[in-house]
Amino acid sequence: MQLEQDRRPAVAAHSVAAVRAAEGAALAGLPPGAPDALMQQAATAVAVTAARALREATGGIAGRAAVLLVGSGDNGGDALWAGVRLRRRGVAVTALLSADTAHPAGLAAVRVAGARVLRVSSPPSATDLAPLAAADLVIDGLVGLGGRPGLREPATSLVDRIPASAVVVAVDVPSGVDVDSGALPGPHVQADVTVTLGAAKRCLLLPPASTAAGRVEVFDLGFDVPPAPLRRLDAAGVGALWPVPAPGADKYRRGVLGMVAGSAGYPGAAVLATSGAVRAGVGMLRYVGPDDATRAVRSAHPEVVAGAGRVQAWALGSGVNPDADDDQPAAIRSALDSGLPCLLDAGALEVWAAGVHRDPDDASDRLLLTPHAGELASLLGTLGLPRERADVEERPFEHAHAAAELTGACVLLKGATTLVVTPDGEARSQAEAPAWLATAGAGDVLAGVAGALLAGGVRPLDAGAAAAWVHGRAATLASRAAGGGGGPIAASDVAAHVPAAVAEALAP
Ligand SMILES: NC(=O)C1=CN([C@@H]2O[C@H](COP(=O)(O)OP(=O)(O)OC[C@H]3O[C@@H](n4cnc5c(N)ncnc54)[C@H](OP(=O)(O)O)[C@@H]3O)[C@@H](O)[C@H]2O)[C@@H](O)CC1
Ligand SMILES: [K+]
C-alpha cells in the first residue's frame, strides 16, 4: 500500500556508531529509569504515525487489525509499547514474536492491554502467519540499530507474508537493510513510513535501502548527534546556495559558462544542456560545437554566444562522441587545461579518463563528474577497479566514493536518487524527482543547471546537490502541469520548469 508521498524533510543521516555514542552520552546524564522514558517517547511517535497512516489507508482506527513484528531487542520493545497505545485506541493488536525473548516490560504491557501474543516457530506454521493475512497495519520492530544486514528465519517468512494491502510502518529502519551502507543484501521490509528515532540513519538516504523506507519521519529524542557528512538538501538549503544577482550585477560578474556539448549524431543534447544552463540563470553562455549543433542551439536560444572565449567554468561532454571525427575532444582537453571548474558529463568522462589530464590534487574543488551507473562502472574500470553496472546499482554510494577517492574529483551519480560525493566522504542524496524523469535528455539538462552553478562560483558538491534538487523539482512541476496527479514529461519540459523550481527554492 502506497501512501501519498509529500516532500520529505531536510535530514542529516548518521552512522550507527554516531547514534549509539550520542545516545550513550545522553543516557549517562539522565536519572535512573530515563532509558525507559526514551522508549516511551519512541513508542508514542510510532503509534501516532501508525494511527494516522491507518486512518489514511482505511478511513478509521478503532476496530482495525494491527500486527506487530517483534524482534528480541529494543526495536521490538518500541513496537510492543506502540501496540499498547494502539490498543487504547481500539485497534485489534496481534504481536508475533520472532525470537525466544522479547522486551520483557513491553511484552507484559501489551498482554495487559489485551493484545494477542504468538511466539512464532521457525519456520513459521500456517497459524503463526494467519494474522498477517488479515492485517490492515503492520509495525516492523524486528531489528533496528542492532540488526545485522539481511534477516533470518522466522523473520524472513514473516516479512515475505506481509500483505500488499497493509500499511507498513517501520520502527527506526526497515528491518533487513544494511543500516550504514544502504545496501539490501537479502530479504527486507518494504515500508510505507519509517519513524526514525533520535536521528536519521544512513540507510534512509542511501539507495537502494532508502527505497525500502517509504516516507521518513525523524523523531527528536532530545540528544545531540554531531553534524553528519551525509545530508539531503531541502528547498531552503538550495535557496541558501543559489547565486542570486546583486543589484547592479552584470552578466560577466554573474558568471560566464563555457559549454562543449553535442555532436553531429546528438545535436539535441547540446540544445537540452544549453537550455538547462540558460533557464538556471547563468550570466552568459558560450557554446562550442559542430555547425549543425550550433545552429540548433542558436535557434532554440538566441541569447547563447557561439565559440570559445573568457569563462568562469566549463560544462563538458553531454552528447559528445569521443570517437566522432570532430573537434569536440580537443575542445574538452583545452577546457580541462584551463584550470577552471569543469563539469564532466558523458563523452567528457571518457576523454578525461583516457587522457593525461588526471591529477587528483588538481581535481578537488574543481571537477564535478556526472556519470550514470553504467558510466561510473566504465570509469572505475579505466581507473583499475573493474565493475559491472549492477555492482554500482547494488552499492551506489560505495562506488561513487571509490571514484571520488581515485580521481580526487566530486562525483555526482545520477539515478532515481542522485548521490553527490567528495573524496573525503562528504555527500548529498537528492530524491525529489518523479519516476517520469527517467527520460532521454534529462541528464543533459542537469549538466546545464549544474554548470551554471559552477560558473556562479558554487563549489562542486553544492552545485551538484542544488542542481539535482532543482532538476527533480522542475520535473515534478512539469509532470503536474500535464494535469491530474502528474503525467509524462520530456526533458525540454524539465528545462522549461527550472525557473519555477529555482523560484520555489528562493521563496522566503
Ligand atoms: N537510540 C536510542 O536512543 C533509542 C533506541 N531505541 C530503539 O532501540 C533499537 C536498538 O535496539 P537494540 O540495540 O536492542 O537492537 P535491535 O535493533 O533491537 O536488534 C538487536 C536484536 O536483533 C537480533 N538480530 C540482529 N540481526 C538480526 C537479523 N539479521 N535477523 C534476525 N535477528 C537479528 C539480535 O539477536 P541475536 O542475533 O544477537 O540473537 C538482537 O537481539 C533502535 O533501533 C530503536 O528502535 C528506542 O527504544 C529509543 C531510544
Ligand atoms: K525495524
From TrEMBL:
It comes from the Bacteria. Keywords: ATP-binding, Isomerase, Lyase, Metal-binding, Multifunctional enzyme, NAD, NADP, Nucleotide-binding, Potassium. Coiled coil: none annotated. Residues 234-505 form the YjeF C-terminal domain. Its cofactor is K(+); Mg(2+). InterPro entries: CARKD, Nnr, Ribokinase-like, YjeF_N_dom, YjeF_N_dom_sf. The keyword Isomerase applies. This is Bifunctional NAD(P)H-hydrate repair enzyme. It comes from Spongisporangium articulatum.
